[in-house]
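Run log, item B.
One chain of 60 residues. Sequence copied directly from the ordering sheet:
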Amino acid sequence: MAQDKNQLRDSSEESRVSKASRERIILNIPDLNWDNDDEIQAFADALYGDIVKRILPKNE
């Protein structure tokens, strides 16, 4: 029973953290000129690079 409560607490914590991460990403999206493909591509490349840096270990 205590293990179930700990699992719920852990999943709740993960949910809270992921929600905060999503909000931070949403708030950091710059105003893009959606008619300019180069600007959109540059933003997508930067976002992808940021995600990769966070996922991959530092020594790779």
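Observations after the first pass:
- Helices lie at 2-27, 37-55.
- The longest helix spans residues 2-27.
Flagged for discussion on Thursday.
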